[in-house]
Each structure stands twice: as structure tokens, then as C-alpha cells.
Fold these 4 entries.
Entry 1:
Amino acid sequence: MRNLYDKLLVTSIGLEKKEALWAIAQEYRNFAKQWPGQYQLVQKVKLWKSDETKELSEQIIGIFSKTLQKYALTEDEAIHFIRTLRSYLHVRDG
């Protein structure tokens, strides 16, 4: 999970709004394609029962949330947007 967090963080540096969202989305999808096993585990954070994993998961969501701050969304709108985007980005090959 740290691998995904690091990739998203580096990708988002210096970008804002649409460019940041696009870059984060691309990196998220690339991660899923390059490391499908790790990606599957990232989707099951609650099963890990680890404080460190929960914190990393929250930090990943934080990257998305920070990017959305420029759009003046309410907290609920941002949460729904992030859920929708992540759902859309799930890789379904074959």
C-alpha cells in the first residue's frame, strides 16, 4: 500500500485541478495493471486489521481530497466523487 501512496503522491506534486485528477487517475490505474495482486489487497484494507494500513489508506484518500479542494465541493460531495472515481478506475480486463 505504501507503494501506491508514494506513486500517487509523486504524481500529484505541482499539479492542480483537472491535471492533478487526471494524473492521479492514470497512476492509480497503472498501479492496478502493473501490480494486480497488490491492487486487490489495497481494496480490502478493513480485513488487514492494521493501524498502519488504515492510516495509509486514509492518506491515499487524502491525496484525492486535497486535489478536490480547489473545486469547492462539500465534504459529502468530495467523498462521493472519490468513491465514484475509484470505482470507475477498477481494471476489468477479459
Note: Helices lie at 2-12, 17-34, 36-42, 45-48, 51-68, 75-89.
Entry 2:
Amino acid sequence: MDALKAVKKARLTLVLGPAVLDYMERLVSMTMAEDWEEGGTPVAFGQVRAIAMELDVEERTINNYERCLVERGLVLWHDYGNCRRDETGKLVEAYPRSVCEKSLPL
């Protein structure tokens, strides 16, 4: 994924620690390929508790990672609604985390 490679290259400039970068990579892995196509919206959705358990960290740590990514304009957070994809997997409606492709240092 070109966007993730760009973030990794700019990690020091963005002041992203390895754990936050790993979390960003996890968010990108939660998106679908068509989310990154022109006109798409890269969206990652999942329960904070489940992600924290998977990464073996506290929920508060996930919240801190997200706050760090939001402050740097790499993630938009929408804490309302839900996500819906059509039968092909294309995103129709979503309101959770959006990975901000346009703000990535490409």
C-alpha cells in the first residue's frame, strides 16, 4: 500500500512511535482494496476492546494511538453510526475511522 509506505517514510517527521505505526498498519489492513480506489473512502471499523485484545494492550492505549493519528491528520474519527457495504464489498455508508489518504505525505 503506497499510502502506508509514505507514512513509514515520514514516521520520524510525523513523530510516530513504532507502536502507533503498527496500529496505523492494523487500521489499513482493516480496509478493503476498493476503499483506496479513486472516489473511495478507506474505512476501518472494529471494536476498540477487540483491537486492544488482539494487540495485547489496554483500550486506553488504543484511544491514545487514535488520538495521535487524528492530531496528525492521518485518521478521521466518526463515533456515530455504522458501516455498510453493498454485495460487491464496495463501501456504501460509513461513519467509523477513516484513513485520510489525501493527508498522507505521498
Note: Strands lie at 43-44, 75-77, 84-85, 91-93, 97-99.
Entry 3:
Amino acid sequence: MTDDGSPSAGGTPPLEAVRAAMARLDEAESWPALREALEADGLDRRLGADGMQRLADVWRERAVRALDDAALAAEVRFWAEGGDLPLHPEGFRAPLPGDLAAEAKRRGWFVRPLGTGGWVVNAPDEAPKTLPARR
């Protein structure tokens, strides 16, 4: 760890920084708001790049987990029908295909990874859809 409390190269962030960041995550309404709060408190430096990436992963996991089955199926359809971030109603805050496939698998839906990097996802009572290789 460095003198300012940030992780050293290859190190882990201090536990108090992780706890504070998780508390901010629970309070934030959006990723940009969370990032702004972390930066204002200097937590982004204390977490380091790896810690910030892990926090972003947790944010995305929570966002897709919060979708009900109908919303998850609609997101899968959007991407399968050629959707892209600029076309999505939430823009660059949209859930990504890799996160949707992981959540569908967690719910017990049929999910098969493809050699091309995409996924076939079969929501209950729907035809299989192919998600593009985008994480």
C-alpha cells in the first residue's frame, strides 16, 4: 500500500475503502452518480483500477439481477435483434449481453456459449435467441 492509502501495484485495496465503496454502491441511483461519489471521497484512488473494475462488475450484476423475467427476456430480445448501446433506451448504461447471459443461466434458463463468443439464450416459453459476443 502506498502512503496515501491506495493499493500498491498488484495489491488489494484497504478493507475500509472497500466497505465505504460498498456503502456508496448501496446508496447510488446510477453508475455515474456512484463514480462521482467515489471520486469526491478519494475512494477511486484507494480502490485502484482493479477495485473500481470489480465494483463496476458488482454494479452490473445487481442491475441485471433486479430485472424481472419479462424485462430480462426483453433485454435479450433487444440484443438478439441487432440492438447496440447507442440504440438502447438507457444508452451506455444498458445491460450488456454477457451480463444478461450470466443472469439467465443463474435463473436456470437454457444458455449455451457459442464458439464465436456469443450465447444462445432460451427464456421460458420463448424461442431461443442469439446474443452477440459483447461483455
Note: The helical segments are 15-27, 31-40, 43-65, 69-80, 97-106.
Entry 4:
Amino acid sequence: MHGLEVSLILTNKFLVAGEYRFSEQHSSTVKRLKTGNMRKADLINQIAEKTGIPKVDVLVTLEAMFKEVKDTLAQGENIYIRGFGSFITKKRAAKIGRNIKKNVAVEIPEHFIPAFKPAKEFVQEVKKLKTVKEGQPNPDEEM
């Protein structure tokens, strides 16, 4: 499988990823937009390049994963991926909003929103980042 070793277990909405290593031959960079952000197409290219799996298969797999996440959250269930994070639903309480065009108070009912909570390991990896890439918003700078 071109130097890729992955073990995945899917049980009761828990996805456990085992050890994985990529071979050195697949360690090239992906051309991204000038903004420095990775788009879905870039992600698909990167995964296909590192694993040797055809891009069409990677696309189908990612789309299936996105659909499963949406469907599961829409049913009110959470998804926990050990070492990565949790896709959860958060409850927003009912509140009074304001329609500023008509200057009228509007009641906003309680509702649920999707959210992602990164795992501790994920947060630790991001904290190692020393600088913000060019084109990325920097929260330390004022606008």
C-alpha cells in the first residue's frame, strides 16, 4: 500500500486510528491558493499523493464521511474520534433578538448547532505552531 500502515476500528460511533506512517517518496507539498488555506480539493490531492489511493476513491470516502457526520449530528448523536476530536451538537437557549430594519423584537427559539471540539493531542500539535502562515488571520493583531 505504498508505505501506509493504518488500522481503523469503527464501533458505536467511535473511530480509533492506529499507528500510521507515510513513506518518504510521498512527502511533497500541495499547491494551495494564495490565501494559504487548504481546500477540499487540496486535501484530496494530499491524501491521494501520500497514500497512493486514486483521487476518485479518496473523494468518495471523504464525501461519505462528511455525509455520515452530518446525518449523525442531525439525529442528535455525537461522534468521538480518539486522538482527533469530537463532532458534537450544542444547545442554544431561546433568546430575544432584534430586527434592526423594522426595530422590532424577535423571539429566537432554542436550537442546536454543530460544533467541533479538538482532542488534547490535536490542541498540543497546533500549539507548537510558532507563526501564522501568510494570508491567515492573526488573532493577536488588531484590524
Note: Helices lie at 40-51, 55-74, 120-127.
